[in-house]
Design a protein that fits this description.
- This protein is mainly alpha-helical.
- It is built from 5 helices and 3 strands, in the order αβββαααα.
- The protein has helices at about 5-15, 50-60, 85-105, 125-145, 145-160, and strands at about 20-25, 30, 40-45.
- A hairpin with an 8-residue loop joins β2 and β3 (about 40-45).
């Protein structure tokens, strides 16, 4: 599925029920809540990158009601070139979004690449980060995902024709 199809599926699931839309074309991704000048919440992903769309949608699925009322969910973001300590903190908060992103990628018939998002420091994803994502996906396969993530996962699978996107058979530690 391409980035437009990923957006179409999202809109079918959440445009009316959550007054939220997603669109590409951003130089940087950002989430903007509904405001006096914007009648819907808006997820903007980078350029026309499908992986960016899935990643930003994953963050939206993680964010609770209160966080979804804040620009970029109220998160502080340390830019590229993070220190080792900042990278460890980054990895802690990225486990669930990247777990969702991996599952969404499978459901959409797309490949997934884990992101350490720290190119300037020359740091790739740590083994503990990879293991944490794999373990979280395994839990979701067994126990199910939170409601919004499950809805999107199943809608992607239905659109792409992918069978059983929560089957552990789709996820192998060595893929990370």
């Amino acid at each position: 599925m391409n980035h437009r199809e990923l957006c179409d599926v999202f809109h079918e699931c959440f445009s009316d029920s959550h007054q939220t839309r997603v669109k590409g074309g951003g130089s940087e991704p950002i989430y903007r809540p509904k405001s006096d000048t914007q009648d819907h919440h808006l997820i903007v992903y980078s350029h026309d990158y499908a992986a960016s769309a899935l990643h930003e949608i994953a963050h939206w699925c993680v964010a609770g009601d209160q966080r979804r009322q804040l620009e970029d969910y109220g998160y502080w973001y340390a830019p590229d070139g993070r220190s080792r300590e900042q990278q460890i903190e980054f990895e802690k908060v990225e486990v669930k979004p990247q777990s969702f992103e991996w599952m969404f990628s499978v459901a959409a018939g797309r490949s997934f690449r884990i992101s350490a998002d720290n190119l300037e420091a020359g740091v790739g994803a740590s083994e503990s980060f990879k293991e944490a994502i794999y373990e979280q996906v395994s839990i979701y396969c067994k126990q199910g995902l939170p409601a919004r993530a499950e809805c999107y996962l199943q809608a992607l699978a239905q659109r792409s024709g992918r069978q059983s996107p929560r089957s552990q058979n789709h996820y192998r530690r060595e893929q990370l």
